[in-house]
Specification:
By secondary structure, the protein is an all-alpha fold. The protein is built from 5 helices and no strands. The protein folds into 2 domains: 29 residues; 98 residues, Up-down Bundle (Substrate Binding Domain Of Dnak, Chain:A, Domain 2).
Length: 129
């Protein structure tokens, strides 16, 4: 019975050791794909004119991008991954705020056009009476 318990304990310890090694191996890989995705997201935010409509959020994303690059250079991949995740959220927020602000601006222009047409129609109706 003791041998069985000892064998079971060794097996569990071995499994745990493999998991620790695998987890450590994941942390040791540079987040190249995530950096590329972040670069693309920041470019999308800039294209949506986030510099005009969401400059703070865009700046946060760009600052975290630079910090993530530095972390990758220092081989601090866990920190780099965290910064990239945060920067992706900031860049997406900047893009969405910019798109929302542009949509609101366009909606306001449409309301003004409708009001102008309504006023013109009322003026024409008064003249025809």
């Amino acid at each position: 019975m003791n041998a069985v318990a000892l064998g079971k304990g060794i097996w569990i310890a071995s499994v745990l050791m493999v998991l620790v090694i695998l987890a450590g191996g994941c942390a040791g890989v540079a987040p190249v794909e995530k950096m590329a995705k972040l670069d693309s997201q920041i470019a999308s935010a800039r294209q949506a004119e986030a510099i005009v409509y969401a400059p703070l959020e865009l700046r946060f994303a760009e600052d975290k991008y630079k910090s993530a690059q530095a972390a990758v250079k220092d081989e601090k991949y866990e920190r780099a991954n965290r910064l990239i995740d945060e920067a992706l959220l900031d860049a997406k927020l900047a893009e969405e705020k910019a798109l929302s602000a542009q949509a609101q601006k366009e909606a306001q222009k449409l309301r003004e056009s409708v009001e102008s047409l309504r006023s013109e129609l009322m003026r024409i109706q008064k003249q025809s009476r």
